């Protein structure tokens, strides 16, 4: 029991709070400076969403050393520190009500941050006028989509995430009658037409006419990585029938190609393409009209809005909604913001965010505010009493 009490006392100590806050200040300072070299998204992942900050920063480096606690670790320790302090110092008294509410609000705020970091999903829905979509696309990650087109009514899609492609191994799936061998995965590339002295990326499809030039990861705020992969389609090892080829060729896949590629396996037509990761929704958004207002005499946007139709057969929803700046659409846990538009003003870009912890900051602020008012009221009443008791 003595060891347990000492451990609880240390976890609830003010010294641990000050240590975590000091480390957090230095982490924010280092992460802010690192954005110059590594970009916002990469810094967010490696500084603020990680347990440990590793050195050197390059993921392909052979030597990495832990140098500092990451944002996820510091946030978790602060949450444990607040919970321990709440348990160790809890007193069921009216005079302590304000302090207890302040602690409870801070705990909800940190817990909401943990929920957001673990379960929030963000993507973009690019819609031309009259177009309908039931999915959003991730701006940072890609997937390899292998699509069976044999059924004219329905496409069967097998999506292989970027995390598996980057391992450069053999991929099998029960829905695929072949194996996929990832020969090479590139984080960022530039595709150029094949020239003398440059080998083609593959021997089938567009890859037989294109070469790949590997580039360092993009770090500028408006730049994005263009990943690519060279894959080889192989028959299943257990299905070596007579006449089955030993390989269906090497293919280059990349979002920069712009068009899917097709191959025939077992008398079925298949389509392969690397595309942004899709997050499918149980509803459909159709863009009816997009409007864009500018300040007179300039090209500076004043206001832009999207008139959309929301259709959800499961909930019998079919209604028109206007999405514009600072007025998003909230539906089934998703929030759809007006994010951008195409230069020709004929298409809109909606940011779709699913965040299960989005209410935590609002609830926490209300609870902390009430706690501060109660605490101030107790001190004010005590001050008035002492003032009246003074001769």
N to C succession of SSEs: HHHEEHHEEEHEEEEEEEEEEEEEH
Q: How many helical stretches?
A: 7
Share in helix: 25-40%
Counting DSSP E segments of at least 2 residues, the number of strands comes to 18
The mean pLDDT is: 85
**Which residues form runs of ≥5 with pLDDT under 50?**
none
Distance between the termini: 51 Å
What form results from the Cα inertia axes? globular
Radius of gyration: 28 Å
Number of domains: 3
The biggest beta sheet is recorded as:
6 strands, antiparallel
In terms of structural class, how would the helical and strand content be classed?
alpha+beta
Give the strand content: 35-45%
What does this structure look like?
- The protein has 391 residues and is an alpha+beta fold.
- The chain has three domains: 2-120 and 359-389, no CATH class; 123-132 and 280-354, no CATH class; 139-278, no CATH class.
- Helix content is 30%, strand content 37%.
- It has helices at residues 2-11, 14-38, 40-48, 71-88, 97-119, 162-165, 360-389, and strands at residues 52-55, 65-69, 121-128, 132-148, 156-161, 170-171, 178-186, 189-193, 210-214, 228-235, 250-253, 261-265, 268-294, 301-312, 317-324, 329-331, 334-341, 347-354.
- Strands 4, 5, 12, 13, 14 and 15 form a six-stranded antiparallel sheet that branches.
- The model has no long low-confidence stretch (mean pLDDT 85).
Strands, helices and their partners?
Blueprint: H1 2-11, H2 14-38, H3 40-48, E1 52-55, E2 65-69, H4 71-88, H5 97-119, E3 121-128, E4 132-148, E5 156-161, H6 162-165, E6 170-171, E7 178-186, E8 189-193, E9 210-214, E10 228-235, E11 250-253, E12 261-265, E13 268-294, E14 301-312, E15 317-324, E16 329-331, E17 334-341, E18 347-354, H7 360-389
Antiparallel strand pairs: 1-2, 3-18, 4-5, 4-13, 6-7, 7-10, 8-9, 10-11, 12-13, 13-14, 14-15, 16-17, 17-18
Helix pairs in contact: 2-3, 2-4, 4-5, 5-7
